[in-house]
Amino acid sequence: MGIMSDTLKLFILRHGQSDLNHENIFCGWIDAKLTEKGRSQAQKAGQLIKQHCETTGVPLPQIGYTSRLLRTEQTMDVILNELEIGDKEDDGHYKNPIFVVFDYTYTLAEVRSYLLSEKEHSTKQIPVLRTWRLNERHYGAWQGQRKPKVLKEYGKEQYMYIRRDYNGRPPQVDLNKEMIQEHDLGPVTGYEFKEPNRPLKYELEGLNKDIVLPEAESLDDVVKRMEPFLDEVILKVAREFELDSCLIVGHGSSVRSLLKILEGISNEDIKDVDIPNGIPLVIELDKKNNFKFIRKYYLDPELAKINAEKVRNEGFEENP
């Protein structure tokens, strides 16, 4: 795995623009796809990561993590192809082993062979782990609703409290209306975009009786579901296999949650943290000091600043 470093580099980013981002809709657990712009953002992210690794001598990501939602999976796929990581197929696509995380012990046992045998592969191949714990915050009854419509209905103060306050939580979802049913006859009025059928989408998670999937979340709720995955998988795997870098593709709220945990951001200050689509953020952690936070930086800081401001103003402006 190359020369050992004293720091673990986490390449973290929010997925590229999705078709519901483009429509200014609360997406949450709805399985939106990337737009062409989103794919271009993912390609650019891969180029930035590759350039950074070549310039600094940091190894390319040695393991990948995504949510269970399609837009992060597509973003990861585009980035790994840009990095030329995986076994190259006849169509030029780079393929890597995929694991859905529903049990931590199972996960560590399954990925071990890939991490320990990396040097034996003729081309670099990394395991990609997918977990519901990296999913976007569940926006409850706001899912599938246009942000300007919700703003008008709730008013600016309540809209911003639910959307930005650490403990703000939207009304609970009615899964009979806002989830695709087994024999769905079409959209329910007001819910043109709906969450996938959970028994089908999250069938593996259903094997673990300790997992209770949410029906509405605050950022505090997201942090609480993220912490065990960060400790028991991301950092545990990095420690056990002496990794130098990994790639995490999440969502606005799951990335904010990771930052809050790793950097120790206060409940008040996290309200002012906005995550732009598709721009890699590097977080450096001290391996010798229990992965203590050292520093963070965007690989395109100017564009990150501009796009983060656009995120903050969603609902107050026309569709991007």
Main sheet attributes: strand count, strand direction, barrel closure: 7 strands, mixed
Write down the Rg.
19 Å
- Please count the beta strands (DSSP E, at least 2 residues each): 9
What overall geometry do the principal axes of the alpha carbons give? globular
Low-confidence stretches: none
Proportion in helices:
25-40%
- How much of the residues is beta strand, in percent? 5-15%
Write the H/E string, N to C: EHHEHEEEHEHHHHHEHEEH
Note the total helix count. Answer: 11
Integer average pLDDT: 90
User: How far do the termini sit from each other?
Assistant: 42 Å
Side-by-side strand order of the widest sheet: 5-6-2-7-1-8-9
Which class do the helix and strand fractions yield? Answer: alpha/beta
Can you walk through the features of this model?
This is Phosphoglycerate mutase. It is an enzyme of class 5 (isomerase). Its EC number is 5.4.2.11. InterPro entries: His_Pase_superF_clade-1, His_PPase_superfam, PG/BPGM_mutase_AS, Phosphogly_mut1. The chain is built from eleven helices and nine strands. By secondary structure, it is of the alpha/beta class.
Chart the SSEs and their pairings.
Elements: E1 7-14, H1 19-22, H2 36-56, E2 64-66, H3 70-83, E3 87-88, E4 94-95, E5 98-100, H4 104-116, E6 128-130, H5 147-154, H6 156-164, H7 175-178, H8 198-201, H9 219-240, E7 245-250, H10 252-263, E8 281-286, E9 292-298, H11 301-312
Parallel strand pairs: 1-7, 2-6, 2-7, 5-6
Antiparallel strand pairs: 1-8, 3-4, 8-9
